[in-house]
Each structure stands twice: as structure tokens, then as C-alpha cells.
Amino acid sequence: MTRRILVVAHNHPDLHPGGTEILAHDLAAGYRAEGCEVLFLGATNQIHREAHPGTALQATGVDGDVLLWSGHFDRFYLSQIDHYGTLQDLAGLLQEFRPDVVHVHHLVLIGAEFLTLARRLLPQVKIVMTLHDYYPICHNDGLMARPSDKQRCMGASPTNCRSCFPEISADRFLLRERFLKTHLAAVDQFVAPSHFLRQRYVDWGLAGDRIEVIANARPACEPVPHRAKRGPRASFGYFGNVNPWKGVLELIKAATLLQASGLRGFELRIHGGAPFQSEAFVAAFETALVAAGAAVSHCGPYQREELPALMAEVDWVVMPSIWWENAPLVIQEAFQHRRPVIASGIGGMAEMVRDGVDGLHARPGDPTQLARVMRRAIEEKGLWERLVEGIAPQPTISDCASAHLALFDRLKLAEAA
Prior knowledge:
By secondary structure, this protein is α/β, with parallel strands linked by helices. Helix content is 37%, strand content 17%.
């Protein structure tokens, strides 16, 4: 029933390979494989591209993807400032492509006004928005964590938010919430990749029957072989961006504690770069690496096609994030390659990794306890083999696309009825 889909994200994986961009782009390919006509629209700014005179729209990628250059954007309100230029170009794109479904994956750089614009110009279009993080709820980069002490937050309110940002008045936070909820009202159905994230939005005020849980997925792949067993399963890998919220410093500290306790013969490989991080954090990261010694190595950024070879070098994947991660693709990639995961037992991570079944939980932000979990992973006989056996087959991007298409069709059928 659904034949023409506009997929919208806040960047393009060729420019910024974050989890949301990668998932959105792979899902667009999944829709194409099901016979749909698909246009991928990613937004960018001066960090990755220069503006082109005369239009906010640019072309990129072999699939004919479109980029929206959005150099004027209000990050507090998630608002598109350029109503007379950028929004007019978006209006032209909507009217020319005339999708049956607009599938939005983020509001950053695109702007919340895009939802209302699509609803006004195309009254019959179905607007679906996947909630990948907590940006509409939380001004702190959608982390739902305090910027001062990194304590996790369970809910937003003007008073609570002002305690994190005392320079912003409580009434502005109230206006921000009402502004965003006004534009989000244009969405027909929300999708949450985890039950935890769904509940955070229900607590914020979105109706529960408007949020369906559909798990993220990765393209199908053949798992790489496990390392030849020459002693304990003692090779740990971290994959992803290196930043303060991913728990990398705590992970390195845990490895340092293991060495200080006399444990030898293990290694920790950290794969990922630290783009756009503060000088203070980068300095702390480099200092921690030096203190950790030879057991810890920073292998730098990697390309997606390099992941299988890197995964082949490790026995365990560690996801020590200290914020409420929603549905990290790294966990699914680890499970695809039959690697058990040590993850913080919070948020969507606790849903994806079943403690004692296909991985182990650790307490977030606690290097001492994480070190104990890693020691157990090395020393407990039969544990690694049992957890590998517990890893369930992972949904493919084809499965994920089919689930979304079924949702789109139900929305169409409900309208017809």
C-alpha cells in the first residue's frame, strides 16, 4: 500500500556516521528493497558542508540522497529559524516528491516546524517519527543527565531543567515544551526502539497509544569466527564514539584497576574517535591511556566495513555508557558476531543485554564494580561459552523495514476506515 516514502534524519552517514543516521539510511535501503520509492533527506551545516548559493538543498550519495544545509538553527527550541529560505525549500521538496509517508528520525537541524509544514501541505500524508533519544525532553543534548555531575534524570520540568541551566529561566523551558508538543501533535505515530525510552516519553506527556515499540536492526551479515582459544577469553573491545557519556574513562579505569590487582594476560581495545570533544576531555582520555599501560590500546576511528575484522580480535564487547542509552547498534552488531556484551544495566541497554543469558550487567559509572565484572568474565569457567549460546538471532534491516511498512499500512487502513 505504501509506495513513496521520505526518510528524514539530522545528518547523513557519509558525513556523520552516528547510530541514528546509519539506521535511518539502512532503513531507507530496506524500504527500497521492498519496492518502495524512497528519498533520503539528511540535514547538515557548516561543520560538514558549505552552503550553496540559491538553495538550501544539495545532492549526495549514490542513491540520489538530498542534503538540507541548515546553518541557521535554534538548538534550544529545535526550531528552524530560516522560515523564508530553508522552510520554503523544504516545502518545495514536499510538494514535488509528494510522499505517502514521511518517516522522521530527528528534529535537529531539520526543525520541529517541518512536521507542521508536512501536515499543512500534504493533509493525507502519514507522519511517523522514530524517537532515538531524548532531545525534545532534554536540552542537554537529549541525554536526560545533569551536565554538572552527570547524574541521570528521570523526568523534565521547568524547575528541574533550570537547575541544570540556571542561565535559562523556567518560563523559557515551559515555552520550549509547549512549542515542541504543538509541532509533535502533527505526528500520526511515534516509534520507540526500546520500552524504556517509550516510557520516558509517556511520562513527558505523549499518549502511550501513539508510541509503538519496534526494535532497531542491522543489515544481515555472516558472523566472524571466534578467536582461537589459547587460554582465558580475555580480549575486550569497545566500539563507538569516545565521549564523556559513553563511560570510556570509567572503562579504562576498570582496566587499570585489574592490572593493579595483579591480573595479567587481558587486553582492552578501544575503537572510535573523539570528534567535537573538549580539550579537557581529550586530555583526560590520553592521560588515562598512559596510566593504563600496555593492556589498553586506542585503535582510533574505524569505518563500518572494517567492523567484522575488528570484532574478530575480541571475545567480549563492552558498552559502559553512563546515560540512558536507547538502543545502541553496537550491541546488535556484537550479537550478530556472537560476542557477549558487558553493558551498563540501565535504559535500553538493560533490555537488549540479558544479564547472565547473553551478556553481563555492570553498574554505570563505577570502575571498581566494572572491573569485578570483567574479572568474572575472564575467570569463570564456562561463562563465555554459555553466554554465546544464549545469544538470540538478531532482527535484520529487512525485518525492521517490514515492521515499519506494516505500521504505515495500518495507519492508511485506519484512515480509510
